Amino acid sequence: MGVLNVLYVILHFIITYIHNIHVAFSELIDRIKPVVKDRTYLWPADCHVLLNATTVKLGANIKDERLLLQTIGSDLKLLQKLPIHVACLFTEKDVNIDRIITIVEWFVSMGVYCISLYDHEGFLTSCRDEIKIKLKGVAANFRNGLKSKSVAVHKGFVTKEFYNLDSINIFIMNQHDGKPMFAQVTRQIVGELSYCQIDQGVVENTMNQFYPKDPELMLQFGSLLSNTTLGYSPWHLRLTQMMRVPNHMRIRVDHLVSTMLEYGSCQQRYGK
Prior knowledge:
Elements: H1 2-37, H2 47-53, H3 62-76, E1 85-90, H4 97-109, E2 114-119, H5 123-126, H6 128-139, E3 151-155, E4 168-173, H7 179-192, H8 200-210, E5 217-221, E6 241-245, H9 253-265
Helix pairs in contact: 1-9, 2-3, 2-9, 4-6, 7-8
Protein name: ditrans,polycis-polyprenyl diphosphate synthase [(2E,6E)-farnesyldiphosphate specific]
Subcellular location: Endoplasmic reticulum membrane
Organism: Daphnia pulex
């Protein structure tokens, strides 16, 4: 048994050492990747935003981080294209609520006031009250006019009459959300129009009465496969650009800024 214990300790040490090296290299690659990806952006109009963001580290003083985010947010607003609605798809089984709150705060500071939080299993939906309470606490520290904005946390999709476009709207969803409302859209179209009157424009106009604006950008946190949606309503992702980012526990401000810059620089081509 003594020999087996020694072998176990040695094996555990080797595995831990390899894991730590892997994590260190992953962090290094994550630091370099945004800069490499943004090599085509105009200097200094866009790149200085990313370089500023790389100074933010997890565990940094929250007041300094907020101050930096406000500067980044005003710079990003100068881009020709900034997403109005961002969908966050979490592919991990374990989701940390505090990190989710931090990610939402980063987006709001960058000027994104409509955010969908989606996980396949529905863990976030079960934590809606906790998320709502913590977001209310974070909102009290907003500056530059954001403090006056109310924060609304919605469970699933809600019709436009139940949310204010001037507020910060957070939609918490899982794989079961969206289907009942889509059925309602279908019933309304069939009940009001004949078959020959129904076309793509009619469907889109009716959907716009029920659903919030389609997300222009979806971030897949921790996804290993490209364009993984894990049951997110496909009819709400018709023109959505999808990007992969590190899992929500490793994500940093520079990752999000990089995706914003990449989205702002891309040319979207619509199919006929």
